[in-house]
Design goal:
Blueprint lengths: L1 E7 L2 E7 L7 H13 L4 E8 L5 H16 L4 E4 L3 H9 L8 E2 L2 H9 L3
Parallel strand pairs: 2-3, 3-4, 4-5
Antiparallel strand pairs: 1-2
């Protein structure tokens, strides 16, 4: 899995490429912790190129959501599709995790521009 970080104004966007599983989900957790410690204004995780997620990956998403809520940092997940979306649906997290379809929509929500 590779993580590519970019910014749009004060919002950080992380493009995830590869599987989010036991062997590498810690990388995403470490990056999220770094961003929170640097007082990021908002975070978007882009799942466009993620084709597989296991319970470790789901755990990192729950952790990220909880951490960012605690820090009052806006957070969205975008481009969740295929088997990854199915796993999130099966775990009943589709309404819990802040998932939106597009980056544009997420940017509006995270930056407070409705």
């Amino acid at each position: 899995m590779e993580l590519h970080q970019r910014s749009n104004g004060s919002v950080q966007i992380v493009d995830i490429d590869g599987d989010l599983d036991l062997y590498n989900s810690f990388k995403l957790k470490e990056l999220v912790n770094q961003l929170v410690n640097s007082k990021v204004a908002g975070l978007i995780l882009n799942f466009q190129d993620v084709s597989y997620i296991d319970s470790s990956g789901v755990g990192v998403l729950i952790y990220t959501n909880s951490l960012l809520k605690t820090n009052n940092t806006p957070f969205r997940i975008i481009q969740v599709h295929g088997s990854v979306r199915r796993v999130i649906e099966l775990t009943k997290l589709i309404g819990f995790l802040p998932i939106v379809d597009t980056e544009e929509e997420a940017l509006k929500q995270v930056s407070g521009k409705s």
